[in-house]
Amino acid sequence: GFCTHLLLSQIPEHILAQTNNKTEMLCDLKKVTEEHTGLYWYRWSQERQNFEFLVFSNQFGKVTYGANISQDKFSVQRASSYTSYSLHIRHLQASDNGTYYCSISESFQLLLGTGTQLGVVDVLPLPLKTTQATPSKMPVQCVTKSKPVNKKGACSPLVWVPLVSSILVLLMSLVPITYRLHRVRRRLWLHVH
């Protein structure tokens, strides 16, 4: 039986590569058991709806290929720690599309890795370009920016609230002065007449 297992992690999860180029994917074994004798690589093809054995690499570096699998196309490299294996694929074609799984055999089961999805295209998509807005030529008197309130600026409430308050206080203090001036003026008028 097949089952995915967290002990086998694969990176990256997705690869988008160009036709005729090469790529590689890594399989990391989190825990090596005594039953572990090597690593298998399989490919699931959604288009062909089949699970295909590609290559097996034992702990001594001996490689066994599946039926109709080119040794020139696929190769496996093993880290000295025996816990990491990388699958290299050359001369990529559309027929290489699919999800690649590393696998180990344990207790009469094939434990599968998390999978790496490979897509092969003739032309890689271009990265999105960021466009900069041209600055406005109209004069700007006061622009409020989304800044925190505690920062002081020309339009900040910390500037105009005290200004308005002090203007109101000045206007309020003018009321008694105006009333007093009016009384003085009236007295002078009465005195003259």
From TrEMBL:
Would the keyword Membrane be found if you checked this record's keyword annotation? yes
How is this protein situated with respect to the membrane? Answer: Single-pass type I membrane protein
Q: Give every Ig-like domain span.
A: 12-107
- Disulfide bond as a keyword of this entry, yes or no, is yes
Q: Which UniProt keywords apply?
A: Adaptive immunity, Disulfide bond, Glycoprotein, Immunity, Immunoglobulin domain, Membrane, Signal, Transmembrane, Transmembrane helix
Which PROSITE patterns does this entry report, sorted A to Z? IG_LIKE
GO terms for cellular component? cell surface; membrane
Membrane-spanning residues = 158-179
GO biological process, alphabetically ordered = adaptive immune response; regulation of immune response
Molecular function terms, GO-annotated: coreceptor activity; MHC class I protein binding
List the subcellular locations: Membrane
What InterPro entries does the record tag this protein with?
CD8B, Ig-like_dom, Ig-like_dom_sf, Ig-like_fold, Ig_sub, Ig_V-set
Q: According to its UniProt record, where is this protein mainly located?
A: membrane
Q: What is the designated name of this protein? A: CD8B protein
- Tell me the organism's taxonomic lineage: Eukaryota, Metazoa, Chordata, Craniata, Vertebrata
